[in-house]
Predict the structure.
Amino acid sequence: MSEYGVRECYRGLVPILLRNGPSNVLFFGLRGPIKEQLPEASSRAGHLVNDFVCGGLLGAALGIMFFPLNVVKSRAQAQVGGDFQPCRAVLLTVWRERGGSLAKLFRGAHLNYHRSLLSWGIINATYELLLKIM
């Protein structure tokens, strides 16, 4: 902190906001309609499974959709100190480094998908359970 200042803590903020804003709107907007498409649950365990599946699949799908912004954020935050690069410039750098290939831009997305499936499933199921308890 003494060498780079507080500003360094905000490196990569723009891609984070571009990813999290629309992703949260879509997650909370689509969670209900997706859950309605799942089979009707008759037990507490059934509701827990439905909430896990709904949150997990939605979180994983959104993770894939917004994966390039995650790559930009990670790349921007890999640098400590120096000028802050605009989001577009970082994306172009990554694009060139990966040979201008969309498939290569999504390299590692399968790992992000699996992580999101588990984490968002757990988060959504826990959230719904806590809503019912409180």
Observations:
- The chain has a mean pLDDT of 94.
- Residues 6-133 form one domain.
